[in-house]
Amino acid sequence: MTSRTDKSMRVWKSTADRLIDPIVIEDAHSRSVERVSWDPQREFTFASVGRDENIKIWKTTGTLERLIKVEKELGQSDATSLKIISYSNDGELIAAVDRDSTVLLYSVEKDYQKVGEIKLNEHVYDLKWFNFAHGYFACALHDGTTPIYKVDDGEMTLKTTLRGHRSSATTLAIDPRGTYAAIGSNEGVLSIWNTASMLNTKVITEIDESIASVDCSRDGTYVAATYDRGSNIRVFDVESTEQVYEVPNSVSGQLTFATIAWFPNKTAFAFSSDHGTTLTLMKKPDRIS
Q1: Segment 193-241, tens digit of pLDDT
Q2: How far is it, in rounded angstroms, from Cα 162 to Cα 148?
Q3: What is the C-alpha to C-alpha distance for residues 52 and 147, in angstroms, rounded to an integer?
């Protein structure tokens, strides 16, 4: 699944050796499509947001299943510009974030009824759910902190805050096993945090560039980082923090940053780079290639 600055989206089917020609959804939103999120309970359903006030629920056939117009109660502004959308790991809740740093929760089981809303004081770069159903989520903020919120019946309560980065926390990822969180920052530092103790255990400082996105492999063995200027995507071994692979020709473009996403069922990943090129790389027996 890829989103584009021309307001379109493309849904690719992955086979063992290639991507099959995509289904193209033109004019998915009135502006650039900012983020998509797959429904973990329904294989052929995903949500999208695109710098307007609408959350859209789609089928992979390109059919629009549902349109949710966001109405805020707190921090009202003339227009809502949504930039982040994320299903919880049990598929029961969906979180949306706008450019005013308002986090909104919707209940999928209650026909996408809004069940919670909070306004944060810092710009939100990223939001990720922990793997415990829909109990917790974390936000990467402009001041370098990563607050973790507990969700109880739609009410969001701050439980703890991860501190340590001296510049903006630009992206974060949660290990699918739930053992660690990876936080990328504007100063190029990638930090690894133990989720049991909420303490920083490792730091990766290979590249002195702002980190655009991070993602963890299906078993948490690897973490990959993309950068927003001239460096290729790097893949690191989490245990040793050593770089194990550099993805060739994967630098960010002038219009969008490079991104990476690991497959949920095999050690392979897809990435986007300059000019919107999308590729997949598979893990071979002895090394990532």
Answers
A1: 999 999 999 999 999 999 999 999 999 999 999 998 889 999 999 999 9
A2: 8
A3: 26
Q: Which fold has domain 1-163?
A: Methylamine Dehydrogenase; Chain H (2.130.10)
Q: What is the dihedral of CA 217, 222, 223, 224, to 10 degrees?
A: -90
Quote the tokens at residue 82. Answer: 């949504």
**No. of H helices and E strands in the chain?**
0, 26
Among the four given CATH numbers 1.25.40.10, 2.130.10.10, 3.40.50.720, 3.40.640.10, the one describing domain 173-289: 2.130.10.10
Question: pLDDT band at 17, cuts 50/70/90?
Answer: low
Grade residue 285 by pLDDT with cuts at 50, 70 and 90. very low
CATH 2.130.10.10 maps onto the chain at 1-163, 173-289
Cα(64)–Cα(74) distance, integer angstroms: 29
> What is the structure's pLDDT at 197?
95
C-alpha angle 237-243-245 in degrees, rounded to nearest 5: 100
Neighbouring residues of 154: CB distance < 8 A, sequence distance ≥ 6: 105, 107, 115, 116
The contacts of residue 279 (CB under 8 Å, 6+ apart) are 270, 271, 273
| Other CB atoms within 10 A of residue 193 CB | 23
CA separation for the pair 171, 51 (Å, rounded): 19
User: What value does the CA radius of gyration of the chain take, rounded to a whole number of Å?
Assistant: 18
